[in-house]
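FYI - complex with nicotinamide-adenine-dinucleotide, inputs then prediction.
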Amino acid sequence: MTFSFNKNFKNNIMYNLLKGKRGIIFGALDENSIAWKTAERVHEEGGVFVLTNAPAAMRLGNIDELALKTGSQIIPADATSVEDLEILVDKAVEILGGKIDFVLHSIGMSVNVRKGNHYTDQNYEMTEKGWNVSAVSFHKVMQVLYKKDAMNEWGSIVALSYVAAQRVFPNYNDMADNKAFLESVARSFGYFFGRDKKVRVNTISQSPTLTRAGNGVKGFDGFITYSEKMSPLGNASALECANYTITLFSDLTRKVTLQNLYHDGGFSNVGVSQSVIEMFE
Ligand SMILES: NC(=O)c1ccc[n+]([C@@H]2O[C@H](COP(=O)([O-])OP(=O)(O)OC[C@H]3O[C@@H](n4cnc5c(N)ncnc54)[C@H](O)[C@@H]3O)[C@@H](O)[C@H]2O)c1
């Protein structure tokens, strides 16, 4: 029998890959969020988790709906606050009845992007806030988990990145620097988490995806179409990203760590595609 995945499939194939696993999922805001899709897929694969987001985000999105659907509890936490993260981890371990097996960090925000400040005209207070939310928060999450010894052996921690960490995408602004910072934190902390706790840490470099964060990037429509035309397999959707993340949370990828894993339909290795060439002929 052959199974095929496509962007529109409604009936996900379930493998019970995460049965018995407990986790924390950061960053589900609305049904377009990559974290939202991941929570749904983790639930379908038998994993249990707590959902968390910044207290302010509780008013913006509809995370309650996701909690109800997946039988999860919500613990608000600002990911830049170590105190909030300590409470979150303690409560998660208590609610879930044991140590944590998987963590998704699906958080990104640039105040300069939001305010329309050009890369060459940054407000540095905004720059600091952006890297704190988008990159240092990942270090904070891991440091709290590490110090509390809250992760089970062979657990898996994933954060989401974008190829602007390696290549120039002018409108991605200071988020490019934040993603480079994030990927470096994954490698550096991942070394100690692997050596000391047998926990793996990776980043997934995802295609441009229509979400609230994605839409904040200037010229996003052109950006996403260009990426689609450049990628031999087309852009990866949020649901496809969720599916990939599940493999990284499962026991099938235990020795994958310190990696930035491209989940982009092949975009990152293409110089130019035939369909882009044809636009200039
Ligand atoms: N959408 C894309 O095109 C794309 C591409 C590659 C990578 N990513 C990355 O994927 C991740 C998820 O973004 P998304 O596209 O699902 O958008 P999204 O807007 O749905 O998710 C971003 C989340 O970050 C949360 N957040 C912001 N500040 C926070 C804080 N201080 N504490 C806790 N949470 C906070 C928001 O509330 C929101 O839930 C981000 O890291 C983003 O950079 C997105």
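Residues 75 and 88 are 6 Å apart (CA to CA). The chain is about 45% helix and 15% strand.
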